[in-house]
From TrEMBL:
<dbReference type="InterPro" id="IPR038764">
    <property type="entry name" value="GNAT_N_AcTrfase_prd"/>
</dbReference>
<dbReference type="InterPro" id="IPR016181">
    <property type="entry name" value="Acyl_CoA_acyltransferase"/>
</dbReference>
<protein>
    <submittedName>
        <fullName>GNAT family N-acetyltransferase</fullName>
    </submittedName>
</protein>
Length: 293
């Protein structure tokens, strides 16, 4: 009997392109790759407006973006007419385009609530699959609840490493002056969870139901909003983050630092010990599965 092997890559690329187009249409933007200096300069200005960096601490320059694009890397923007509302920048990692690292992605305040970030990421996914790149990675601050939900639920990316103070001091309007701990996530572009998420059908977790089923609460907030640690003595562990860490850093820097330390010890410790973050409940809980002996 002859074995027939079907190449599913073209079908997957078509599926990804259709999902990206649908997301852009739903958010009312056109997403396209950028190469001209004027467009790349607009990207740098957008990033500066979002991150509000200290003088001399520009997130990225137009010269660097121009060089990156000329070397075949990814820069894309989301436009409502002629207005740039969002942008995303990534570059290849070894070996030989084995993965794309998505370094910066942001959406202007005027574009919030429209799904533009989702449209940008689905465009990036379709572009990467067109380059035969199987995985996209990026980092995010694990204390930022909305980003955890976006990355782990809406996109179905999965954390691989907890990275303490990954960038060092950044001194901008979002990160403040504290430690820049990050989660490094991997986005397996062809995996069933990612394909479902691209169809706006992501897997979801319910922390309250998991608690009723015996999940341990290893980190929570007390009545005053301070972090409180607990046992992690169950196969499934829940780890909380505050509702708005950026506002908390401004209003109470000491409590913001306390959450940084607590999350590093609890979530970072669990991941170092071999546990896996399998999802995020929008109510503010990482869902962690411990390896079974």
């Amino acid at each position: 009997m002859t074995e027939v092997v079907t190449n599913t890559a073209p079908l997957l690329r078509d599926e990804a392109a259709a999902a990206a187009t649908a997301a852009a249409t739903a958010s009312g933007v056109q997403v396209r790759t950028l190469a001209e200096v004027a467009d790349l300069t607009a990207v740098t200005r957008l990033f500066e407006a979002i991150w509000r960096p200290a003088p001399g601490n520009q997130p990225v320059t137009s010269e660097l973006l121009r060089a990156m694009v000329s070397a075949g890397n990814y820069v894309a923007g989301a436009f409502d007419g002629t207005e740039l509302l969002g942008a995303c920048f990534g570059f290849f990692g070894g070996p030989a385009k084995g993965g794309l690292h998505s370094h910066i992605a942001g959406v202007a305040t005027a574009g919030h609530g429209r799904g533009i970030g989702f449209a940008l990421k689905l465009h990036q996914r379709a572009w990467a699959l067109g380059q035969d790149v199987p995985v996209v990675s990026w980092t995010f601050d694990p204390l930022v609840r909305r980003n955890a939900h976006f990355n782990l639920t809406k996109l179905a990316a999965r954390p691989e490493h907890y990275l303490p103070d990954f960038y060092g001091p950044m001194h901008d309007g979002i990160n403040g002056a504290g430690d820049t701990d990050r989660l490094m996530v991997a986005w397996d572009l062809a995996s069933p969870p990612v394909r479902a998420a691209a169809r706006a059908e992501p897997a979801r977790f319910d922390a309250a139901a998991l608690r009723n089923q015996g999940a341990a609460v290893a980190l929570a907030a007390d009545d005053g909003g301070a972090p409180v640690t607990g046992p992690a003595d169950a196969p499934v562990v829940l780890v909380a983050v505050p509702p708005d860490i950026e506002a908390l850093r401004r209003a109470d820097p000491g409590r913001g630092r306390a959450w940084r330390v607590a999350l590093r010890e609890v979530l970072g410790g669990l991941m170092t010990g071999g546990a896996s973050v399998i999802g995020f409940d929008r109510a503010g809980w990482y869902v962690v599965a411990k390896e079974q002996s």
